Protein: TetR family transcriptional regulator
Amino acid sequence: MEGTPTSRAERRRRTEERILSAARAIFAERGFQRTTIRAVAAAAEVDPALVMQYFGSKQELFEQAVRIPSIPPLDGELEPVEELLGRIGMKMGPLPQATLAMMRSMLTHPDAAEEVRGKLDGQVAQLADAIGSGDAELRAALMVSTMLGVTIAHQLLGLTALRGASPERIAETLRPSLRALADG
Structure:
């Protein structure tokens, strides 16, 4: 039969993916602290015991469901400020559920915080290399923090002024501040 799992392994893989998909959505909506195994199981239409059998703990479920992609490296074609500002549209549009889940969880869950910190430290290092002299690492960290703050204010807090502004307008308004940081 076409479209039906033919093996136990295939049925298991599909069930596991259904659980992970439900977990991503609930972690994105509620964060780590407020997500329960029962809620994930209900959304995946499985028994909570099955979630525990597959993943062992809420922590393990979180780790497998919420993996944020690496931040793309600077490509060097644009200067660092323009490259950061060029990514505004991506940060203002719909984010993947895993990214939203990680953002909601990073302030209350140490593993989420560590993963985000690692990704951002990598971006800070790239920017610091690109802007060079003086206290480049501090200036790069301030630039990345500014962008993170704008993303959080738009995506999680839904600040009216940010929601109403186009990515181009936000970039235009941020440009002098980021340029001042980059230039030292």
